[in-house]
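Issue: copy button drops trailing tokens. Both records pasted manually instead:
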Amino acid sequence: DKARQIFQLLLTHRGQWFYREQIVEHLWPHLPIEAAERDFKVALNALNRALEPDRPPHASSFFVTRRSNLYGLNPAARIVVDADDFEQLAASDDVDLLRRAVALYQDDYLPDCLYEDWPAAERLRLRHLYLGTAERLARHLLRARATEIPARGWDEAIHTCEAILARDNCWEAAYRLLMRALAAQGNR
């Protein structure tokens, strides 16, 4: 479990380097420092074995690199992260790309670490980006539907607003957009 969390921590902050003490502080905050550093070594070895099972003993790891007392993901490693794809799609103003962004966001970031403090800021940032992106998509859909033949329906805009409210039932803009879409259908 902690090997996975080391990887998740480094992945969340790719491009950054951490001192061993920083990693230990994030993942083993309640342990005495000696025990935490021992557990770090064990977890790091488990992580390296999981990522590179055929790596020869005592060979340097390719994915998790060490610079003196700093650890991070190797910048030369090609690591594909769906959160990066989501952010790129969410930056668009094209309806099809916004649809893809909203569809890509399946759940909050690292849902298996809900009770850990270290991923909370990234989780909130991505959630807020999702909510804003879905709201922009709903606005685009409502504008497009207003210029089309009413018989084509407003279902996608309604579904998008309902998806926003399922994640955050206090997102007021989604309620306003939902009311507009339902009123346009004649459902008061």
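Record 2 (pasted manually too):
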Amino acid sequence: YWPWFLLTLLIMLISAYTYLRYAPRIFETYSKVKILDESEGLELPTSAFIFKRTNINLENEIEILTSYLIMNRVVRELNLNTSFYEEGTIQTSQIDELPFDFEQIIKPDSISNGLSYKINILSNGLTVTNLKTEKEFSFPDFSTYNEDHRLPFNVNLNYEDSKSDLLEKTFIIAFKSVKEASLSLKTKIKVEAIGEQSDLLKLTIKGESKELSEKILNTLMDVFDKDGINDRQLVSKRTLDFIDERFVFLAEELDSIEISYQDFKQDNNLVDLVTDAELGLQQRT
């Protein structure tokens, strides 16, 4: 049966090559975060500190990291509700940003339904096509700034070196709502604890663009850090406000006690002779 084995091997090799050639490349990007135990402060690594289990609840930190509020902030900071793709001969792959000037006109909160536009770069200019309505806009000077249009963005390719490299290429710009982008990002990011006794969390995301994945994880850690700082500042502010309120209340109470004590002495003609004599002597001196 060696001809069948050879034919099967040949088919498997062709299938593997075809899959690797045309399947989208998915990259896994990860980062690690150390959660500090603020109840103990910064301690030296003594034996008691090393073999003692931390009081940090990592499950709570994981829920905060993957919460909708944190994801929403990351989406807004990176404008993730706007995606860019480069259309190739075989497949369309996501890219971090467009290789030319891009300015978004529409506000992120104004996007309720999905919108997508195709940009074709030709030798005599560029065309923008609304993929939903199939309406096409032509810009012979490689820029949308010089003409009136109703597009939610502006692009500019008025660079000779960029034109030569981008000729005959096609790019796609896709818009979606902030809520949809936040929920989509929430499903892509995986957060897990590293070991049972560790206070480290591992953040993982998979995507076609390595640069975009790195930006997302870096921004997520930065937003998470700022969220913790804001919480601590809020606790400190409320503590100071409580102390100030108690200080005013206690000052009023002490004044009231002093006034009552003075009235009581006056009403009962009580005089401390020793203190009065000392005070009189000091005044004479």
